[in-house]
Amino acid sequence: MSLHKSKDPYADRCPIRDVLERLGDRWSMLVLFTLEEGGTLRFSVLKSQIADISQRMLAQTLRRLEQDGLVSRTVYATVPPRVDYALTELGASFLKPMHGLLDWAKAHHQDVHAARRAYTAPEAIEAR
Amino acid sequence: MSLHKSKDPYADRCPIRDVLERLGDRWSMLVLFTLEEGGTLRFSVLKSQIADISQRMLAQTLRRLEQDGLVSRTVYATVPPRVDYALTELGASFLKPMHGLLDWAKAHHQDVHAARRAYTAPEAIEAR
DNA sequence: CTGAATCCGACGTGATACTG
DNA sequence: CAGTATCACGTCGGATTCAG
């Protein structure tokens, strides 16, 4: 989502924006779900499991999730360096309602696809 | 989210992307919630209720929601023209799990804000 | 291994003006 | 009233390069 940053006058009406703006990017959910599945994972493991994420975006995504308190980061002062990532309690609690959405998407994404295929643009109707 | 479009190799693992990519923009959720509250609403009413949305983005958002089958669009051939928008059953069913997220956000957005304030960038620690 | 820095193109969004 | 068209700008994300 580009739920871009904003001086949103609806923050009160839509407190969800405060949070979902940050999770609505290309990778956050995928990282969270991967951590949920895999438990504590190293940077390189996350990278390989998500596969098509770039190093840059994985690092950036993890920073934000860490900053929001959804993911914990543990650095080991070894050579080579090792960094473990895991869900925090807050992060795990977030995924619960998120699974509700996931279930909905699984159940209805075919309906959505069908609607997209059946859709005819308003203009196109009278265009000919 | 810029859950931008993508040739996503994780569509199977993350079917939620198919759907949430589209809902993850700046206005979709707000429009859906507004329709949930207000029932059937005209374009101008939606515009005034959301207030800071531009005509362009409202129209674009409604097109996408309509295309995905979440919102219905009814045109009356009157002068001046009148167009009603309302949630479809699919749209209403989507909002149910979405409220789970909303509740989480309401319950925890303070935790998130607290985490953000408490956060110190990794570099900043050893930077001085 | 785990990043950060930079360059760059693509897309989302807003402002404005125009139309049926 | 209910849109569409055009332009300009900002951010996101990918590729690449450099570093501890």
TrEMBL record, chains A, B:
A GO MF label: DNA binding
KW DNA-binding (keyword) present: yes
A Pfam cross-reference name: HxlR
Keywords of this entry: DNA-binding, Transcription, Transcription regulation
Domain HTH hxlR-type intervals: 14-113
InterPro entries xref list: HTH_HxlR, WH-like_DNA-bd_sf, WH_DNA-bd_sf
The name this protein goes by in its record: Putative HxlR family transcriptional regulator
